[in-house]
# Entry
Amino acid sequence: MDQAELKKQKERWSQTTLKAFVSKSPERQAKFLTASSEAVEPLYTPLDAGSDEYCLNQGFPGQYPFTRGIYPNMYRGRLWTMRQYAGFGTAQQSNERYKYLLANGQTGLSVAFDLPTQIGYDSSHSLAEGEVGKVGVAIDSLFDMEILFGGIPLDQVSTSMTINAPAGVLLAMYLAVALKQSVPCTELRGTIQNDILKEYVARGTYIFPPKPSMRLIVDTLAFCTREMPKWNPISISGYHIREAGSTAVQEVAFTLADGIAYCHAAEKAGMDIDAFAPQLSFFFNAHNDLLEEVAKFRAARRLWARIMKEKFRAKDPRSMMLRFHTQTAGSTLTAQQADNNIVRVAIQALAAVLGGTQSLHTNSRDEALALPTEKSVQIALRTQQLIAHESGVTNTCDPLAGSYYVETMTDRIEQEAQAYLDRIEDMGGMVEAIEAGFVQKEIQGSAYRYQKSIEDGSRIIVGVNKFQLKEEAPRDLLKVDPALRQIQINKIQQIKTTRDNARVGAALDRLEQTAKGVENVMPSIVDAVKEYATLGEICDVLRRVFGEYRQQVIF
Amino acid sequence: MEKQEIRILIAKVGLDGHDRGAKFIAQALRDRGYEVIYTGIRQTPEDVAKIAIQEDVAFVGLSLLSGAHNQLFPRVVAELKKAGAEDIVVFGGGVIPADDIPFLQSQGIREIFTPGTTTDQMEEFIQRILAERA
# Structure
């Protein structure tokens, strides 16, 4: 059927069949919107989807532009890595949780650090009060890291570490632990998040100003491409941008804009795009709107491939592959009727798998209340295993391709994200757009509208603004003992009396000199870590040289 | 008293960077006509008390999602008291387990708002306190 005929018939259907039906029984809402507030039509047809350019826009899995996935057979070969983000309390407690997860069939580790660790303060620092071991594990020195990975052979697991401003320090500690296990660093598999730009706009664990922060990232990129070929030295993250309230389009646009900024910085430092781009990895959110999310992942893959090929002139196809981790959307979990979160997470996880993710964290039902219990974490992991082994969606590549709706949304998200990228480029790039407050304002506006729509009831959240129940406040939640800070402080004191303090001082001096110069700082950080310099001591040296970032309050 | 004469400080104490809720509340109260100041993230209890006094606010709303509320919220109240500003009403919100609420209230935090609280509920609280004082 040709397009003109199809158009005529669709118009006729709309004016007769649909109109007559709706005039008798009106639709539930005046308009239907996605989770990102995009209007949704009652029907999509080949008129909407750009299916006439199949080879150009969809193509084949494992081939440019990778819309249909980065591997030729996707999950028929290997399933995604099931990787639950975990960590709390002391290194000992977290080590036990990791062993529990591995015993339950988890296939990769993901370390959550507490806030003092993420911001480069030792547990003994005054600003660490109340925060030690709370949102993750407390790591003050190599000593803690040795306990954290005790009995876990690092040549057999891959480890993701959510660490940004001090990413190089934690990477150095991981290397040092591996060396003690006689595992060469060329064999280590894993990821450091190491994505500072989104910290300024969405997540908040920055330490240094943008310029020296970008230098630290380039140093870790260069170090990893040279020494750790199986390691992902960065995980460019849209997850937190979405959690801060952005739309799906903004999540894609701002994440890829961050990626572009890192590529420019690495090129400026003399690196060849194909030398580091295959090691870049990404991290996205899986939100509630199942089909919009699937389209988002597909659009992100296609857009990144095009950027790498057309803008950066990459030649290696691996440079054009957007490999990504996904986490279900913590911000959508409700404290009310918390067990409903199991269902939310299942839908979101399904979106990630239908979208072709390489690894996945599924949130636990009780995360809106406190740290998850072992039972809750097990259900979350089982959710992934169910999708993998029972749902059948893993049997073929990109199963929703060809859906008129999904293809239309994939095109739209790509186009709208590209429009943002153009605006950001006009501003001089992502660092400049962040400094101008543009990105923050865009996210805030979306977050405000979303919450308003919940308050005015136009967006229904089950158990929150509809179908409420009177329920008892939950008790017996997992709690971190406040005495833990003292345990950490004692350990730091013990280390400071047993290590060779002259060697520590010399290593920190060398680090200071390197940081002031232009050489790669990673080798000096590795040396300091091996001497049991604490995280706080190392970051204090860098604070002295680089200064500290002060957030501009945009409100 | 007119709404625009009522000054409210929304503050993020501790190292936690989750500011979506704090910014929403700040903007929603501003949209309803209150004079609202937002501190930005990573403030110490001392910073918050100082800003509250300098800005002559009637209310301080603390937001924290990292679990450090039992340590940090009472310190804000103590700092205000130390400066003779105990008339400033302190309330809080975030991921705060029900078990912790009686302790926080005993430490002088007037109200704890848990997830799902609406702007209406928050405004009712503000108006109730103002009515008590009138």
